[in-house]
Design a protein that fits this description.
Elements lengths: L2 H36 L2 H27 L6 H19 L3 H23 L4 H21 L1 H4 L5 E2 L5 E2 L6 E2 L3 H23 L2 H11 L1 H6 L4 H27 L1 E2 L6 H14 L4 H17 L7 H15 L5 H12 L4
Antiparallel strand pairs: 1-4, 2-3
Helix pairs in contact: 1-14, 2-7, 2-10, 2-11, 2-12, 3-4, 3-5, 3-10, 3-11, 4-10, 11-12, 11-13
């Protein structure tokens, strides 16, 4: 076999792979747009929840998959974002898109000073520190009664109001929520993709693979860690905003370890460092979470078993299975 024929076969394989990916993407897009016409409200609710959790999962994927760190603080930042959005809407009457942006920005600004001392800790100490943020967040939400109403939480969070000028409209139906949150999920996934494929994203991967070598190349590793920690928190805050306006209520329960665990399972189960893996993981593992609602007293036990299964049988998450499926659709290599 000549070098030219080998090169042509490799080119054909790449073209086939791209074509398959595009066709698959088109099929998925059509399926997503048509889902409200074939799914009942229960399944639409599950998909909406998966789109909400996709945003903090993207944020955690930035830390775990692209920086090689582990954080358990996403649940805390998710809760902060939900409270920020709810308080802004209830006390100032700000529109949904303002609340959404505000939740991410404020959460990121809160994470920034917290990350300065936390990121100077060693691996296990850093993980415990992020776990502590979840505990502190829940304690603040319970005890700052004047702001958060304590255990009662905040109820009556306004539903999203869209449009400008004299003719705004309020999203009140589950189908309306579905299309709104689908648009936001696609937009935020696109922004995430732009970030991780940029020169900054390549620097993150360099730090993950070999931090000492990255420093030798002139990459400010600690600065990158701080920025990534902040952006990750902002993504969780964005998700918290969607959560607050969908359920129209928030409470200290939002800070429970269950949420951090769910987000972690989505990332590890889908495949850390893979965008499509996390997207698929958000659907699969939120569906598992919804199924476990029938026995809430055993939910965390079942989550622990899921984590063990992932560690032993799917250490790289669902991503290798997804890649294998795409390769099969592309046809056998010659």
């Amino acid at each position: 076999m000549t070098a030219n024929s080998t090169s042509l076969q490799a080119t054909d394989a790449r073209i086939a792979s791209r074509t398959t990916s595009r066709l698959l993407g088109l099929v998925i897009l059509v399926a997503l747009l048509g889902a409200p016409f074939v799914l009942d409200n229960y399944y639409l609710h599950a998909v909406i929840i998966s789109m909400i959790f996709l945003l903090p999962a993207h944020g955690l994927n930035l830390i775990v998959g692209y920086m090689g760190m582990l954080s358990l603080a996403q649940g805390a930042f998710f809760g902060i974002g939900s409270y920020v959005s709810a308080l802004a809407a209830m006390h100032f009457g700000t529109p949904f898109y303002v609340n959404f942006i505000l939740a991410g920005v404020v959460t990121g600004l809160i994470a920034l000073p917290l990350g300065i001392p936390a990121l100077r800790l060693r691996t296990y100490s850093f993980v415990m520190c992020t776990l502590g943020l979840v505990v502190i967040g829940e304690a603040v939400a319970k005890n700052w009664v004047g702001l958060t109403r304590g255990d009662m939480g905040l109820s009556g969070v306004p539903q999203p109001v869209l449009g400008f000028g004299a003719h705004p409209f309020t999203v009140t139906t589950i189908t309306g929520y579905y299309y709104l949150y689908l648009a936001i999920a696609v937009l935020m996934t696109g922004l995430f993709y732009a970030l991780v494929t940029s020169p900054a994203g390549r620097s993150m991967i360099a730090i993950r693979d070999n931090e000492i070598q990255a420093e030798a190349l002139g990459i400010p590793t600690w600065n990158y860690k701080l920025v990534v920690f902040t952006i990750s928190a902002a993504f969780a805050g964005f998700g918290g905003s969607l959560y607050a306006h969908y359920l129209t209520t928030v409470s200290p329960l939002t800070f429970q370890m269950f949420y951090s665990t769910t987000i972690l399972i989505i990332v590890l189960g889908g495949g850390a460092g893979s965008i499509r893996g996390v997207v698929v993981g958000s659907v699969v593992f939120v569906a598992v979470s919804e199924a476990l609602r029938i026995s809430p007293e055993y939910r965390m036990v079942m989550y622990g078993l899921v984590l063990l299964l992932l560690v032993f049988w799917l250490p790289n998450g669902l991503t290798p299975l997804i890649d294998r499926g795409l390769a099969m659709l592309s046809g056998p290599r010659k």
